[in-house]
Amino acid sequence: MNDARREELAAGLAETESRIRDACRAAGRDRSEITLIAVTKTYPASDVRLLAGLGVTDVGENRDQEAAAKAAECAGLGLTWHFIGQLQTNKVRSVVAYADLVHSVDRPRLVDALSREAVKAGREIGCLIQVSLDTAPPDSGGVAERGGVVPAAVPDLATAIARADNLRLRGVMAVAPLGEEPGPAFARLARTARAVQEEHPGADVISAGMSGDLDEAIANGATHLRVGTALLGRRKPFVR
Ligand SMILES: *Cc1c(COP(=O)(O)O)cnc(C)c1O
Protein backbone atom coordinates (compact mmCIF):
# COMPACT_ATOMS: atom_id res chain seq x y z
CA MET A 1 0.00 0.00 0.00
CA ASN A 2 2.66 2.44 1.13
CA ASP A 3 4.98 1.14 -1.58
CA ALA A 4 2.37 1.70 -4.27
CA ARG A 5 1.74 5.21 -2.98
CA ARG A 6 5.47 5.93 -2.89
CA GLU A 7 5.66 4.89 -6.55
CA GLU A 8 2.77 7.21 -7.45
CA LEU A 9 4.32 10.14 -5.65
CA ALA A 10 7.74 9.43 -7.16
CA ALA A 11 6.18 9.44 -10.64
CA GLY A 12 4.36 12.72 -9.97
CA LEU A 13 7.55 14.25 -8.65
CA ALA A 14 9.63 13.07 -11.61
CA GLU A 15 7.07 14.44 -14.07
CA THR A 16 6.87 17.76 -12.23
CA GLU A 17 10.66 18.05 -12.02
CA SER A 18 10.91 17.44 -15.73
CA ARG A 19 8.38 20.20 -16.42
CA ILE A 20 10.30 22.54 -14.13
CA ARG A 21 13.60 21.77 -15.84
CA ASP A 22 12.08 22.28 -19.30
CA ALA A 23 10.53 25.59 -18.27
CA CYS A 24 13.82 26.72 -16.71
CA ARG A 25 15.70 25.84 -19.86
CA ALA A 26 13.18 27.71 -22.03
CA ALA A 27 13.45 30.76 -19.76
CA GLY A 28 17.24 30.64 -19.45
CA ARG A 29 16.98 30.09 -15.72
CA ASP A 30 18.68 27.67 -13.36
CA ARG A 31 16.69 24.98 -11.54
CA SER A 32 18.34 26.12 -8.31
CA GLU A 33 16.41 29.41 -8.52
CA ILE A 34 13.16 27.53 -7.97
CA THR A 35 11.70 26.10 -4.77
CA LEU A 36 9.05 23.43 -5.25
CA ILE A 37 6.39 23.50 -2.54
CA ALA A 38 4.30 20.33 -2.36
CA VAL A 39 0.75 21.39 -1.54
CA THR A 40 -0.42 18.48 0.61
CA LYS A 41 -3.86 19.79 1.61
CA THR A 42 -6.50 17.03 1.92
CA TYR A 43 -3.72 14.38 1.79
CA PRO A 44 -2.50 12.56 4.91
CA ALA A 45 0.69 13.05 6.90
CA SER A 46 1.88 9.71 5.53
CA ASP A 47 2.09 11.34 2.08
CA VAL A 48 4.12 14.22 3.52
CA ARG A 49 6.50 11.66 5.01
CA LEU A 50 6.84 9.81 1.69
CA LEU A 51 7.46 13.07 -0.18
CA ALA A 52 10.11 14.04 2.35
CA GLY A 53 11.74 10.66 1.73
CA LEU A 54 11.73 11.49 -1.99
CA GLY A 55 13.62 14.71 -1.35
CA VAL A 56 10.81 17.25 -1.01
CA THR A 57 11.84 19.94 1.47
CA ASP A 58 8.88 22.35 1.40
CA VAL A 59 5.19 21.69 2.02
CA GLY A 60 2.15 23.97 1.71
CA GLU A 61 -1.20 23.83 3.49
CA ASN A 62 -4.22 26.13 3.34
CA ARG A 63 -6.30 25.23 6.42
CA ASP A 64 -4.95 25.65 9.92
CA GLN A 65 -6.68 22.75 11.62
CA GLU A 66 -5.45 20.24 9.06
CA ALA A 67 -2.00 21.80 8.79
CA ALA A 68 -1.39 21.97 12.54
CA ALA A 69 -2.08 18.26 12.99
CA LYS A 70 0.04 17.30 9.99
CA ALA A 71 2.95 19.52 11.00
CA ALA A 72 2.88 17.94 14.47
CA GLU A 73 2.88 14.43 12.98
CA CYS A 74 5.75 15.36 10.68
CA ALA A 75 7.91 17.18 13.22
CA GLY A 76 11.50 16.09 12.96
CA LEU A 77 11.52 15.74 9.17
CA GLY A 78 13.20 19.12 8.82
CA LEU A 79 10.52 20.42 6.46
CA THR A 80 9.77 24.07 5.74
CA TRP A 81 6.03 24.72 6.18
CA HIS A 82 4.22 27.27 4.03
CA PHE A 83 0.76 28.54 4.96
CA ILE A 84 -0.91 29.43 1.67
CA GLY A 85 -4.60 29.84 2.55
CA GLN A 86 -6.73 32.74 3.67
CA LEU A 87 -5.84 33.39 7.27
CA GLN A 88 -8.27 34.56 9.93
CA THR A 89 -6.74 36.44 12.84
CA ASN A 90 -8.12 33.92 15.36
CA LYS A 91 -6.00 31.21 13.70
CA VAL A 92 -2.78 33.19 13.76
CA ARG A 93 -1.51 31.86 17.10
CA SER A 94 -1.80 28.31 15.87
CA VAL A 95 -0.27 29.01 12.45
CA VAL A 96 2.72 30.84 13.91
CA ALA A 97 3.64 27.72 15.87
CA TYR A 98 4.47 25.67 12.75
CA ALA A 99 4.53 27.88 9.65
CA ASP A 100 7.86 29.23 8.45
CA LEU A 101 6.30 31.37 5.73
CA VAL A 102 2.80 32.81 5.37
CA HIS A 103 1.99 33.47 1.70
CA SER A 104 -1.37 35.12 2.23
CA VAL A 105 -0.72 38.35 4.09
CA ASP A 106 -3.40 40.69 2.79
CA ARG A 107 -4.27 43.28 5.44
CA PRO A 108 -2.67 45.39 8.20
CA ARG A 109 -4.69 43.71 10.96
CA LEU A 110 -3.19 40.38 9.96
CA VAL A 111 0.31 41.88 10.07
CA ASP A 112 -0.33 43.09 13.63
CA ALA A 113 -1.67 39.71 14.73
CA LEU A 114 1.18 37.77 13.10
CA SER A 115 3.77 40.03 14.69
CA ARG A 116 2.22 39.84 18.13
CA GLU A 117 2.00 36.04 18.09
CA ALA A 118 5.44 35.60 16.52
CA VAL A 119 6.95 37.66 19.32
CA LYS A 120 5.11 35.58 21.94
CA ALA A 121 6.26 32.35 20.29
CA GLY A 122 9.81 33.61 19.89
CA ARG A 123 9.73 32.79 16.18
CA GLU A 124 10.47 34.73 13.02
CA ILE A 125 7.83 34.34 10.31
CA GLY A 126 8.50 35.02 6.65
CA CYS A 127 5.68 36.97 5.03
CA LEU A 128 4.55 37.21 1.42
CA ILE A 129 1.99 39.78 0.36
CA GLN A 130 -0.79 38.14 -1.58
CA VAL A 131 -1.46 40.27 -4.65
CA SER A 132 -4.70 40.23 -6.61
CA LEU A 133 -4.07 39.87 -10.33
CA ASP A 134 -7.68 40.45 -11.32
CA THR A 135 -7.86 43.02 -14.11
CA ALA A 136 -11.10 44.43 -12.75
CA PRO A 137 -10.32 44.58 -9.03
CA PRO A 138 -12.83 45.85 -6.49
CA ASP A 139 -12.15 49.58 -6.26
CA SER A 140 -12.41 49.44 -2.49
CA GLY A 141 -8.77 48.34 -2.36
CA GLY A 142 -10.11 45.34 -0.52
CA VAL A 143 -9.75 41.63 -1.03
CA ALA A 144 -10.49 40.44 -4.56
CA GLU A 145 -12.22 37.33 -5.87
CA ARG A 146 -9.22 35.03 -5.61
CA GLY A 147 -7.79 36.83 -2.59
CA GLY A 148 -5.05 39.35 -2.24
CA VAL A 149 -4.64 43.10 -2.27
CA VAL A 150 -4.64 45.27 -5.35
CA PRO A 151 -1.09 46.22 -6.46
CA ALA A 152 -1.60 49.84 -5.36
CA ALA A 153 -2.04 48.68 -1.75
CA VAL A 154 1.15 46.61 -1.73
CA PRO A 155 3.74 49.30 -0.76
CA ASP A 156 1.99 50.26 2.51
CA LEU A 157 1.53 46.64 3.49
CA ALA A 158 5.18 45.96 2.68
CA THR A 159 6.26 48.80 4.94
CA ALA A 160 4.05 47.53 7.75
CA ILE A 161 5.54 44.03 7.52
CA ALA A 162 9.10 45.34 7.28
CA ARG A 163 8.57 47.38 10.46
CA ALA A 164 6.84 44.64 12.45
CA ASP A 165 8.75 42.73 15.11
CA ASN A 166 9.56 39.08 14.31
CA LEU A 167 8.20 39.29 10.75
CA ARG A 168 10.41 39.26 7.69
CA LEU A 169 9.11 40.54 4.37
CA ARG A 170 10.12 37.89 1.84
CA GLY A 171 8.16 38.92 -1.27
CA VAL A 172 4.83 38.41 -3.02
CA MET A 173 2.41 35.64 -3.88
CA ALA A 174 -0.48 35.35 -6.32
CA VAL A 175 -2.95 32.95 -7.86
CA ALA A 176 -3.57 33.41 -11.59
CA PRO A 177 -6.99 34.99 -12.19
CA LEU A 178 -9.76 32.85 -13.65
CA GLY A 179 -10.59 33.27 -17.31
CA GLU A 180 -7.36 34.95 -18.33
CA GLU A 181 -4.02 33.78 -19.73
CA PRO A 182 -1.69 33.22 -16.76
CA GLY A 183 1.43 34.57 -18.52
CA PRO A 184 0.44 38.27 -18.67
CA ALA A 185 -0.97 38.06 -15.14
CA PHE A 186 2.31 36.64 -13.82
CA ALA A 187 4.16 39.38 -15.71
CA ARG A 188 2.11 41.96 -13.75
CA LEU A 189 3.06 40.14 -10.53
CA ALA A 190 6.73 40.32 -11.51
CA ARG A 191 6.42 44.09 -11.92
CA THR A 192 4.85 44.41 -8.48
CA ALA A 193 7.60 42.18 -7.07
CA ARG A 194 10.30 44.40 -8.58
CA ALA A 195 8.71 47.51 -7.07
CA VAL A 196 8.67 45.84 -3.63
CA GLN A 197 12.26 44.73 -4.00
CA GLU A 198 13.43 48.25 -4.84
CA GLU A 199 12.29 49.33 -1.37
CA HIS A 200 13.08 46.04 0.38
CA PRO A 201 16.05 44.32 -1.28
CA GLY A 202 15.67 41.12 0.76
CA ALA A 203 12.12 40.53 -0.46
CA ASP A 204 13.08 38.37 -3.42
CA VAL A 205 10.40 35.65 -3.37
CA ILE A 206 7.76 35.37 -6.09
CA SER A 207 5.31 32.61 -5.18
CA ALA A 208 3.35 31.84 -8.34
CA GLY A 209 2.49 28.83 -10.39
CA MET A 210 0.39 25.78 -9.57
CA SER A 211 -0.06 22.45 -11.36
CA GLY A 212 -1.73 24.04 -14.38
CA ASP A 213 0.48 27.07 -14.91
CA LEU A 214 3.90 26.46 -13.38
CA ASP A 215 5.56 26.79 -16.79
CA GLU A 216 4.19 30.32 -17.33
CA ALA A 217 5.13 31.20 -13.75
CA ILE A 218 8.75 30.14 -14.30
CA ALA A 219 8.82 32.13 -17.55
CA ASN A 220 7.77 35.18 -15.53
CA GLY A 221 10.26 34.97 -12.69
CA ALA A 222 8.56 32.76 -10.10
CA THR A 223 10.91 31.55 -7.37
CA HIS A 224 8.40 29.37 -5.50
CA LEU A 225 5.88 26.99 -7.09
CA ARG A 226 2.88 25.67 -5.15
CA VAL A 227 2.07 22.31 -6.68
CA GLY A 228 -0.62 19.96 -5.42
CA THR A 229 -2.51 17.97 -8.06
CA ALA A 230 0.48 17.23 -10.30
CA LEU A 231 2.33 15.67 -7.37
CA LEU A 232 -0.36 14.05 -5.27
CA GLY A 233 -3.30 13.54 -7.62
CA ARG A 234 -6.68 15.15 -7.94
CA ARG A 235 -8.18 16.19 -4.61
CA LYS A 236 -11.62 15.06 -3.54
CA PRO A 237 -14.07 17.96 -3.46
CA PHE A 238 -13.78 19.58 -0.06
CA VAL A 239 -16.94 19.38 2.04
CA ARG A 240 -17.13 21.88 4.84
C1 LIG B 1 -4.44 24.20 -3.59
C2 LIG B 1 -3.56 25.34 -3.87
C3 LIG B 1 -2.47 25.20 -4.75
C4 LIG B 1 -2.16 23.92 -5.51
O1 LIG B 1 -3.00 23.80 -6.60
P1 LIG B 1 -2.86 22.61 -7.67
O2 LIG B 1 -3.63 23.10 -8.84
O3 LIG B 1 -3.45 21.39 -7.04
O4 LIG B 1 -1.42 22.44 -7.96
C5 LIG B 1 -1.65 26.31 -4.95
N1 LIG B 1 -1.89 27.48 -4.33
C6 LIG B 1 -2.92 27.66 -3.48
C7 LIG B 1 -3.12 28.98 -2.84
C8 LIG B 1 -3.79 26.59 -3.23
O5 LIG B 1 -4.81 26.77 -2.39
UniProtKB/TrEMBL annotation:
Belongs to the pyridoxal phosphate-binding protein YggS/PROSC family. Residues 33-234 form the Alanine racemase N-terminal domain. It comes from the Bacteria. The keyword Protein transport does not apply. The keyword Oxidoreductase does not apply. The modification N6-(pyridoxal phosphate)lysine is found at K41. Keywords: Pyridoxal phosphate. Pyridoxal 5'-phosphate (PLP)-binding protein, which is involved in PLP homeostasis. This is Pyridoxal phosphate homeostasis protein. CDD domains: PLPDE_III_YBL036c_like (cd00635).
